[in-house]
């Protein structure tokens, strides 16, 4: 019976509906384009005739637009959609889910406010996934003590937010978005009182973070409460600073629990070293540093990377991705699972196509029909071994202090010198 269950796939692939009609439409359009080209060729004005150059210019433009249209149909010719089966995943893998490391990248506390960043962090810390198998890393390329302070605040708030999310199965799990959308319920209920308490707690935290950001520095009385602020001194700048690795929530610590006594996900702050004269390689360099540092601390076989302004709107996103990675027949052929982006602040009719629906719902799915969607830089689950080679278990380091010291050299700007990092290992620096 167990063998029969393993033969059942964890996901299926379906071709989009209406493709025959679309291909007929494409064929008719192609005939029209060719006829226009033929007409232009047969009726080119002779030398010296009026309008000859305008005619040739129009013909050249129509050839370019026609070729562009033909090329774009490659991304729309075979549109497929993937459907995971989480119930089969849970029946087959009850206790042996893999660890997952989540990377959130930010670079500037002015352009990317810390209160926005921690909403993304809190949304992934609240995933419906065993917290002892979840590690969240915030990469701060701006090396801002303001962002570090916001992450400390988020680590405390998560002790209340995560159990609230899981108890009431709320969505989305970015508190700013959730509280803005959901307030239509009876204010006399127990849920309403808990909702109000958590909302007030969140607004107080956000107010403290925004006040510190407006002042441009963290008050001394706050700095004295956390040893991590010792990393910042008067000589630190965005482009010149040492590596900083701080484990804010250590899952090996028995005291790292929420208000209900459940384990919390690991939470790590990283700011890789930057020095004048050393290329930092932008986001690719940040991702490579995250891969190295996380391999020393948690070394999960699955990695999710997110931009700091892209909160997760599905608490089961990890389970959906695992349906592809853990499928017995095709799972080993899959190196990454790309999720489409969704936007919550576009207008109802989206007349300027800010949500890029054609790209995410049709074209990426069409490219997937020919062997796999493109990596778009965020919302993507990777196998660690597909990025940095053969996966090995972690090295057995236990204490947070020991892990921090071991991880710091891996984030140094000179680490990649004369190596294949950024060329053949991990993300290419042209990204």
TrEMBL record:
It is a multi-pass membrane protein. The chain crosses the membrane at residues 20-41, 53-71. It is found in: Endomembrane system. Mn(2+) binds at residues 283, 307. UDP-alpha-D-glucose binds at residues 112, 141. The keyword Chloroplast does not apply. One of its GO terms (molecular function) is cellulose synthase (UDP-forming) activity. Pfam families: Cellulose_synt. Keywords: Cell wall biogenesis/degradation, Glycosyltransferase, Membrane, Transferase, Transmembrane, Transmembrane helix. One of its GO terms (cellular component) is endomembrane system. One of its GO terms (biological process) is cellulose biosynthetic process. This is Cellulose synthase-like protein e1.
